[in-house]
Amino acid sequence: MKYYVKISCLIVLLMVVFLLLITGCKTNKEANEKGKSKPNIILFVADDHGMDALGCYGNPVIQTPNLDKLAAEGTRFTNAYCTSASCAASRSVILSGKYGHATGSYGHVHDYHHFSTYDDVKSLPVLLEENGYLTARIGKYHVAPEKVYHFQEELKANPRNTYEMAEKCADVLKSDKPFFLYFCTDDPHREKSTDPSRWDAPNSFGNKPEGFPGVTTRVYNPKDVLVPSFLPDTQQSREEIAQYYQSISRIDQGFGKLMDMLKATGKDKNTIVFYISDNGMAFPGAKTTVYEPGIKLPCIIKDPFKSKKGNVNNAMISWVDLTPTILDMAGVNARETKFHGRSFNAIIDQQNPKGWDEINASHTFHEITMYYPMRVVRKGDYKLIWNIAYPLEYPFASDLWASSTWQQVYRDKVDHYGKRKVQDYLHHPEFELFDLKNDPDEVNNLATNKKYASTLEAMKTSLKEFQKNTRDPWIIMWDHDSSFQGTGVNL
């Protein structure tokens, strides 16, 4: 009898152990699934970094080993676009998923410019906080008001030293909660005038002779840099590009430090990392324009839950898609928020996904004195720019006007600026239609070519539809369409 009691007890014990194992496996599975639905997310945003200056995008001169490694371990997009090549306007789109013309974020927020997003806009950090995320930001902010773009933690560091910035993020990386880290450098934005007494002095782009703590200074010979085709190949351009490269190499080292710290926490396997820029390089012909050098930008994403490594994705994506994509990755249901963009999370692993062959851009202001609204549609190889204020001379950002690259052209009264005539750069036609496959430099305007009349009309129709769908007030400029105009009464 005792023998049978012992056997019965053993069986019961084994059943209990089995049930505990099953429960434990189920709990672990649920924890893993929960972990996947709540990944950590790092959105690393450089300031004025174009596609021209990264090793993984084909530049053999610049040293960006850490960002190249990110591309080798993740996905590199070849057709990623901001919506406005202006810092504040672009950042409002990144964090809201809506075009600036619909949110009041028409241009710079600082000083007397004072553009500000409408109070009822629900931003990415706010939505993530509501869904259990720790939200933290460091470096450049440049959006307003704070209550719309609220982060729980604001970290302080020299925004020109990404190595120091990375060190300040240690506690966030160790958080018990899933975290969203918005990491924004001041590099490689232009610095205030290097030498106001000399027009031909290259801008420092934040570089200092004594360097920065923790950073190895990478100095580039102006003779070795690659001059993009839209810039004049002059001594002044080369000297400024060399400074620009140095600033980017500093970004790369800080990024590498941040990734090393992330790996040390063991959370790299559950953290999605984005590297983007707010707009193109800070040279005339790129920043503040809607030409390709201004709005076509680097975008590298490493998602540990995606299978492909070193993938190259040719889908046309836009910064207006970033907020819905990140929310999708985080498992946040934000259907009630009507974004202008859409999630591209499902196609990151692909190379040529269908249905991703069209983007739009919308620029209105940079500085408040630079009113020059432009709307863009790119469909396949064709791109249409509508210069709404075309009778005006194209305005200059104050730092771009003062650049030695431009001043050399201006003072010597040179006919061409890169491949474009100076007069064509300063005086735009109402419509510019380009075939980017055959004319990547955007110098052959097809808008007045009768052969492309049907293409022009189709692109105009697409542009009007975009403006209608995003409630663009500037739609009034088509045949005095006042359907979106306000009443002058606060409702």
Structure commentary:
This protein has 491 residues and is of the alpha/beta class. It has a single domain, classed as 3-Layer(aba) Sandwich (Alkaline Phosphatase, subunit A). Helix content is 31%, strand content 16%. It has 14 helices and 14 strands. The strands form three sheets. The chain has an eight-stranded mixed sheet with strand order 4-3-5-1-6-7-2-8, with helices on both faces. A four-stranded antiparallel sheet has the order 9-10-11-14, with helices on one face. It has a two-stranded antiparallel sheet with strand order 12-13. Helix 8 (235-265) runs antiparallel to helix 12 (404-411). The longest helix is centred in the N-terminal third of the chain and has 36 residues, at 2-37. The chain is globular. Residues 1-6 and 16-36 have low confidence and may be disordered.
Topology:
Elements: H1 2-37, E1 40-46, H2 65-73, E2 75-81, H3 87-96, H4 100-103, H5 124-130, E3 134-139, E4 153-155, H6 162-167, H7 170-173, E5 179-184, H8 235-265, E6 271-277, H9 292-295, E7 296-302, E8 311-318, H10 322-329, E9 358-363, E10 374-379, E11 382-387, H11 398-402, H12 404-411, E12 416-417, E13 420-421, H13 422-426, E14 431-435, H14 453-469
Parallel strand pairs: 1-5, 1-6, 2-8, 3-4, 3-5
Antiparallel strand pairs: 2-7, 6-7, 9-10, 10-11, 11-14, 12-13
